[in-house]
């Protein structure tokens, strides 16, 4: 995963333009992808699709004609979405257009100006301190013109039209954890899921941040009712502990599934309540949609010093962390896929498991195998009002052990799967 | 406030009589007040308005003719509501009528006998130990005759007939924290509120304890439905931390408003559940009324050693504590007044705050101002099902910051105030 | 209780057979008992009543003809439900039929094989290590033939047909804590309750484990709706702290009653959630019945090393612990019997307790007697929506103090008992 991510790293992406197209082109080699182009000026709810931005080169030359700030060395050097400029200006005039991180003097900050037309350069604080008085040649060879906003969907059809939405923005230039780690995770997840039978249909969105989710929601307003569960995968490549931010609903099935997986894994983790600041879950969870979409991260945005700087590079993201994040998301998918309602066919007293070979033969021993206990829980709570996840939460047994028990009991006709869905059980919702 | 309170301090008050009238007369110089007189013998629910008690003088003279216990020195010396007496008795006979505090030998206790006709004197334990054998002249020049019970109301009319009830008993003689601190707070609060526009109407009750609230409820039984919120203000002048005792309902808006103010302030505080022992909230919260009335105190009755003794004097109450208590009650009033329901006019995705000048212009920075966050919370939860207080509780933002954000969003037509009121949101009621 | 238990101790019980009959015969001398016999082969839900097992003698003789394992010395030596056998076999062949506890080398384990026909012996590990090579004479003089399963009911008729079910299995041979302590407790409880007036009817079940409760439920399927509360009393004679395992419902009245008694007593205790592993509550709480039946234990099955071994003997059970367990169950019965709904006849404001002699006469003192507070709680919450147990939980007052207060208030016509039952109060259910 890390190797593949490295291919995406050098591209200069933004919320529109060829950087996104090139990135989606590389992803399309891995998974089926439909690329959408939405024209500049299109109204999307309260917003308007902006002009398309493309950049070829940019530099600042000192009085000696040396490129002291050079887009070719790092695409972070340009204020993302800068309007074109070509001028000779004094150092003082130049400084009004420079951004640095004084507290991290060797890192280049990442800055954007999407909705106000301006130009600027980002550089290390050390670089700026080295600039001497004199006139500087400034050049941003960019275009900001009518064009398109580009985003892509990968749709994997399952048994039902009910959808799981997986989303990550794809608008950041050479930044690794934010956002390439999430893009990579979703690409590998989609590749894996495309090869297995699925109950739900899965829709992967690779979109520019904010304006991308707003555009997608605007064009899919009548279809979002199909979204039963959703996850934004963000900053999943650093070595920090997991952070899961719950959906606005707070107790949606996706929330409970992720929490279950985290609680039964051995990785450190934290669960935080929804707040309306963060990634595209802000739009999915706006009150007019209120979709059950949470956000899985390792260290959240803004909580690691490398965030939005040149230090969020390929070294900052670790292959092991990426793989572990993918494994956790797969476990969440397994919970969503397997979260059925079963009905005990023998609800009055326990069935005699022994005569079916499902129970230890010599009684009296104090210890009971975990699997027996999982079967007893499945039988006891499969009254048509509990999903498998309900039972996992109440019993504190791992979902996978209960699923194995359920399969064994189904094969002995002691349980059948209900196709009506679970009745709401207020007693369980308290757990 | 402390200076004004000192004027009320010397008056000998009781549950009836001229002491209450004189006190109400001083209050009437500050705020509009309607004084009510209810005749002795009037039936008020299970109770009967008692005879009116007035006292002119009282003393005990030792065998040498010296006034060893003297009402003129402290009105606490007389068992409050003593029947008149004039007699010469032995020390042993006298002792059956004396009350002291052996554990605080230099303090005079405060004792009453409203509903059993008896007489007695209260004195310091040191005084009692100094009494020598011999015959004592005892005199209580009081009257206990048919008359009236006196109480007062200050009514401030607001936009609606819905009322906030503020109550404090006014029946204690020279005791400062219990009850003059509360009387003073309510007087100053009423004076302040009489000068500002109000959404709710406010009714301040200055009543004798227990029999006063029972009398008021008895005479206003058909009107109490207008009481939407209420507060008993008791013992608010000592230097202890705040104690808020919740209403019987336990999660009434007044409970949540006071708790919010305390949690977002920096004063130490404790919140305790309702119990049917305490002040007039006992009557307001009796099961036949169950009004949403809580009780704000600093150190609760019976928890400070000076309670109901001569040590609860003007030195015990601190002007700073009184003012701080008033500030907290005013903050509660601000929550009640401002607790509206707003409806997001742009509920699908976030509105573009930037084009309205409501958002930082250069993206990419990790930090977001608090006010932006307050706006995002208001937009996200203003779905017609959340009051501003609901949003404050869920977001952990201070009410005032959300109110400021709401005002800004209303002025940009992004929110409008709902006049339907909030739908119940079970998800929020869990917070 | 301990002495009487000692009479039951030597009998060789199993899930069927004369050992159970003999045990029930001894119990019948103490309490009215109806003994039921259910024929082998009877279908009881998913199970079949097994053949009846009876044993007269059993031994293993070493090559010298000495009884090295002897049923006459301890009935635990035989694998319970062993088929008859008479053979001369090698030590190696014998060892395949031997059970020991290597970690407790001087204890005989207790083992059963009800549903697979086999034979075996249990012995101390020390004994087994002493067995020398050679041929052994093996004899189990038992019968496993068509017959009956035996169980008994003691029914105490109360005012209503609503029942409290008390159950304990009676199928273990010479084991004291599991199960004779529970059998003894229920016998003494039934003897006590048979002499007092009762609101509920009480049904005591003395049944073989698992198959007994399944058989009883199968034969009483249409009557179990009468069971309003139930308790399995298990392992109640050791010196460990109490463990209460809640019913599947989790907040049934029996759960709340037991928890109240434990919380207001001074014995250490733990409350655990229902799980489908344990005693006969597994069957009572199967999803098709879901009866409100909990399980009161001291140290739970499998948590004390002596469990299911010869060390669970008469010395292991302590008379004091048994008596204390009985006292706790009696306190639970008192809660169930006394858990009425009262209606305040004077719901608007407090009634004047003083004029009825129910209140301290001299006001102003800081301290209030507990009984006054209990009366105030009863008056405040007796709005027809709170049971006495609801009030006990909310007020944190002991049930017995509230009951005394309720009786006093009823005698003064301030409360009357409601015969409608309590309305559900969501505010209280949160407690």
Count of individual beta strands of chain A: 19
Uncertain segments of chain A are 361-370, 425-431
- Structural class estimated from helices and strands of chain A: alpha/beta
| Alpha carbon gyration radius of chain A | 26 Å
Question: How would you portray this structure in words?
Answer:
- The structure is a homotrimer of 431-residue chains.
- The first copy, chain A, has 431 residues and is α/β, with parallel strands linked by helices.
- Chain A is built from 13 helices and 19 strands.
- In chain A, the strands form five sheets. An eight-stranded mixed β-sheet of chain A has the order 1-10-12-11-13-16-14-15, sandwiched between helices.
- In chain A, strand 14, helix 7 and strand 15 (269-272) form a beta-alpha-beta unit.
- In chain A, helix 1 (2-8) packs across helix 5.
- The longest helix of chain A has 20 residues, at 319-338.
- The two termini of chain A are 38 Å apart.
- In chain A, 48% of the residues are buried.
- At the A-B interface, helix 6 of A face helix 10 of B.
